[in-house]
Amino acid sequence: MTLAQDPTLASFGHDPWWLIIIKIVFAFLFGLVGTLLGVWMERRVVARMAVRPGPNRHGPFGLLQTLADGLKMAFKEDIMPRAADKVVYFLAPTISVVCGFTALSVIPFGPMVSIFGHHTPLQVTDIPVAVLLVLAVSSIAVYGTVLAGWASGSPYPLLGGLRASAQMISYEVAQGLSIVAVFLTASSMSTSQIVAAQAGNDTSWGPVNAPSWYALLLLPSFLIYFVSAVAETGRAPFDLPEGESEIVGGYFTEYASSLKWALFMMAEYVHMLVVSSVATTLFLGGWRAPWPITLWSGANSGWWPLLWFFGKVAVLLFVFVWLRGTLPRLRYDQFMHLGWKVLLPVNLVWILLLAGINVINDWRTRDRLLVIGGVALAALLIAMLWPTRRPEPEVPLQEQVDARPPGSFPVPPIDLQVPPSPRVRREVAERQPATVGGPSAGGQPEEKEG
Amino acid sequence: MTVSDVLLLGLGAVAVGAALLVVTTRHLVRAGLYLVVALGAVAGIYLVLAAELVAWVQVLIYVGAVVVLLLFAVMLTRAPIGPSEDLDRPGWPALLVGGGSGLGLAALLVDAYRWSTVDRDQVGDAQRLGTEIFRSWVLPFEVLSVLLLAALVGAIVVSRPEVGRARPRPPDRGER
To answer: How confident is the model at residue A449 (pLDDT cuts 50, 70, 90)?
Structure first.
């Protein structure tokens, strides 16, 4: 039986009610099981990177560890801080989780399949502006974090909530702009149509028929999207809202290990699943098989695409864990610098370039060359005439201290001397001092160091 | 009365009710949350009118960014949990200005459209909206962006009093 492969927008909205419920339950289970396996994978992978076994007691390879933890949390005491705003305190984790699951409803998991004789796309629903829905829902999810911090009624959570709101708003801008390039190229905002737009086999680079994924075609957008997705989900190295060495536990400090805390953990992992699925859909060809598998003609039909989709999502989740196991947390000002002064301008210039290429693509060759030459000349001129950065004037320490407004807290001076690391200290200590005429009687002379 | 009429009326009631709660509640942060409900209800109205692009952009910008920034500012300065007793000021001038501009706009719109009907197929589709904004209405759009730019520059000037002084203060490394 041959099925029409690619769902169009017209293929949605014809399902009977029981099929809709099946699909919704499937998307919900995807989030739930993804969380269970994601927590397990993260703990095992990070453990392996830190050369220790990780959870291995419950079930084969410790697979049931997350389930055991979840059960344990359900039986723990539910603490309500006395200063908390009761309603909002209860509402905050719910908002986080609900927003995460809502975004899963427009993710295309596969092509048209036949379920109990019904011919239907493997996607809960699709609308012409589906990607905007994902963005909107993830921007509502910020409320869960901010309100949790505020409603706890204590300083550390409030600081965590403040950090979280500033962080998420800043990186939402970069994230939204990185998707604009996809909209421009696919000329659609619906997830299923963006997957369909990446199906073309016409980009053959040399001998290999390269996949026409937007991750290759729009590489800067993909990188910016992924970086800002890591920041959106508040994962290391951007886990400043919950930086445990700085502000205890950030916004969920007061949600001490009850079921509400479990909801926050779940929201984090569902959010990771959502951004991984969106990255797969927008940049990695969605449910379509990667190159060597496409040689087999049946790769993109039936239920096989589910496997390719889950595989791509799993790879992206692994990258999340890998980042956490590798990189230290950024300082807050460095983090904001990256978002506003690097990602945003690069993104804008890239979109301008892309739109320009789109416009001059159907011009005559002479005009095209003129425009390209003019742009290159302008860029060269700007690069040549760009003023070099003047070194910042050295301000003496006493003047810095005097310049502070009255009533300031004592702060360490800016030119603080960092003491040498223990390794340097050890290496200096192990050096044999050179003496004239053999070792001196007075023992080792003390080493001098900065 | 069709389903969409009922939805429109319900969402309108939610929007107006939440807006009233915004100005009457004594909880500072809850006022922000009621504002979220009001703006969300307006997004729902757009959705019922088949303007889905506008609806989701409303959620993305107003609910997701503007009110979060408002809450951020409130929390940065002071965020009491519980009612604040010192919030109220004489409300009559505000009522006059707000009610007057609301009624005036309503009269203007009612007069402009009267009983003309709009076909609801493809109303808020992204392509059509883009064509309208960037062909017919591009000048107001650009003027608005200049206005926003002016607000941005003004905010920077207000927040950095050392700009334009004779000798700049030492660079503040800890700036956010």
So the answer is: very low
Token couple for A181: 């390039």
pLDDT at A296 over 60: yes
Flag whether residue A88 sits within 8 Å of chain B, measured between CB atoms: yes
Is A140 in the B-facing interface, judged by CB distances under 8 Å?
yes
Q: In angstroms, rounded to a whole number, what is the distance separating the alpha carbons of residues A193 and A186?
A: 8
Q: Hey, which bits of A157-283 come out as E strands?
A: none
Beta bridge partners of A110: A122
Mutate to test the interface with A, among B60, B128, B165, B175 (most CBs of A within 10 A): B60
Q: How far apart are CA A262 and CA A71, in angstroms?
A: 10
Q: Are A121 and A12 in contact (CB under 8 A)?
A: yes
Beta bridge partners of A112: A121
The ipTM of this complex is 0.78
CB A285 within 8 A of CB A279: no
Across the interface, do A162 and B76 touch by the CB < 8 Å criterion?
yes
Tens digit of each residue's pLDDT (9 = 90 or more) over A76-114 = 888 888 878 888 888 888 998 998 899 888 888 888 887
Beta bridge partners of A113: A120
Q: How far is CA A145 from CA A233, A270, B32, B129, in A?
A: 11, 14, 15, 34
**Which amino acid does the sequence have at A115?**
I
Contact indicator for A111, A300 with CB cutoff of 8 Å: yes
Query: Residue B71: closest CA among chain A residues belongs to which residue?
Result: A146
pTM for the model: 0.80
Burial code of B60-95, b = ≥16 C-beta within 10 A, e = fewer?
bebbbbebbeebbebbeeebebeeeeeeeeeeeeee
Structure tokens that stand for A293 in this block: 């598998």
Choose among A251, A98, A89, A140: nearest CA to B30. Answer: A89
